[in-house]
Specification:
The protein contains six helices and twelve strands. By secondary structure, it is of the alpha+beta class. A hairpin with a 6-residue loop joins β10 and β11. It is elongated, with a radius of gyration of 21 Å.
Length: 197
């Protein structure tokens, strides 16, 4: 979806003075090893990529969004011809041998999420992982109901998405639909709902 449907993303690195810097970058190719983009060797962006070897990106289209942060590596001209074949507009931007100014980068380890609000009454979210991010992730993220739950149903009454199953003694929050707004935790008289991650 990131490459085929959305394509253009906002990529962040750390710029001069330690401040975030963003720019629009097309994600041009993907395979089982990662996501690929390119830039010209003369740009400040190229220098930042080479020094930091890390990016954060965000992209949105038709009320669906993807955000990722992770490690990148320069793979030189590997996949450059394939990128130009798939993204034919690049042949007009860099005709002939002028493409020698470009190098390809691979986002090979990343994590983040997908968020879909195209049906506002039934939002969807999910995690995304590219490659192996250090050690296996064991930390859950979101709001979770614990044992002190008495089944009062107050959490459900304040939930904008009604994504809390109150049929069990300890209510269960559907993490793929939760907005992470925290209203459930604020309203729980037993303080049985905790935020994790």
């Amino acid at each position: 979806m990131l490459v085929e449907d959305i394509h253009s993303t906002i990529v962040a690195t750390i710029g001069a003075g330690g401040h975030p810097q963003t720019r629009a970058i097309d994600m041009m190719l993907w395979d089982e090893k990662g996501v690929y983009f390119l830039t010209a060797k003369g740009k400040a962006f190229y220098t930042q990529l080479m020094e930091q070897q890390y990016i954060a990106l965000c992209a949105t289209k038709d009320k669906k969004s993807i955000s990722l942060h992770g490690r990148i590596r320069n793979i030189g001209s590997e996949k450059l011809d394939e990128i130009f074949e798939k993204n034919t507009y690049m042949q007009q931007i860099y005709p002939g041998n002028t493409r020698d100014a470009l190098e390809v980068f691979q986002l090979y380890e990343a994590s983040g999420g997908f968020f879909d609000i195209s049906d506002p009454s039934h939002v969807m979210r999910d995690g995304i992982v590219i490659g192996q991010i250090g050690q296996p992730q064991t930390v859950e993220s979101g709001y979770f109901v614990g044992d002190p739950c008495t089944g009062c149903e107050l959490c459900y009454s304040v939930c904008p998405q009604k994504c809390i199953d109150i049929s069990a003694k300890a209510a269960v929050i559907d993490q793929n639909r939760c907005l992470h707004c925290g209203r459930c935790a604020e309203s729980c008289p037993e303080q049985a709902i905790e935020k994790r991650g």
